[in-house]
């Protein structure tokens, strides 16, 4: 019996349904798990995504032919029953459940199991075959609770503000930036965001996600605010002329990669905060176990380690070669008019 999802040069393909999931080449029909640039690419004829993802997906891709579905809503296409379920990764992220011929497959895209007030929580979906990412698929990756991380972020910002220095926190414009904004203490000082972050903030607010007030640097009238503010920007902005406005600022990077000693130093950051929108090792293992799937297909990340470990646990484990990976950030640096100076 043919698999419900197979690899093709264009991406992951469902043969009975004749559609792709997160294709990396333009295709007639694409089901999108979330709006990060390595999973949602422009050029396909028809897109299906979760209703929660509509705002961010249109912000990222512009004018596309988009159909949306509520979480859990069941759709029929060429005999395949398809539904989308929360992945807990970013706003609108979804796992794709496919049912056909008595079999159930779930393609999870990217996911995390830790609580996050900016998106719907991860929902385990029982299935026969589970396709799992492995971005942080090594036992060394184990996240601390968010309240501990944000206590450190706030203390760092407050200390810098007391010395008249801006605090520049680098993170991805979509997902991580909004999660950071939801966890900080805005009473410490003004919050300034890069021009790539602001439209995504607007999409989050339109979806009902509360975020503190944020300003563009061009909207700051009192230059004293630039010496006590928190600046949230994509990583590439930290090395651009845009940074000159903040003078002798302290810089930090928020990422799961900060778990590894040396990554902060190689990036030239003063601080590193271990904050990820992906599952850590215990999260990956618990999510896979909760599906009850006897067969697991591993994608992008620490694939050989995950496959070997899952086989040792008695599961049928294998890998898909994909073009997914750490979020593509080039699009983060496309500035609105007036923000590039």
TrEMBL record:
EC number(s) per entry: 3.1.-.-
Q: Which UniProt keywords apply?
A: Exonuclease, Hydrolase, Ligase, Nuclease
InterPro entries for the chain: MBL, RibonucZ/Hydroxyglut_hydro, Xnuc_lig_assoc
Q: Which GO terms describe its molecular function?
A: exonuclease activity; ligase activity
Q: Can you say what this protein is called?
A: Ligase-associated DNA damage response exonuclease
Q: What is the lineage of its organism?
A: Bacteria, Pseudomonadati, Pseudomonadota, Betaproteobacteria, Burkholderiales
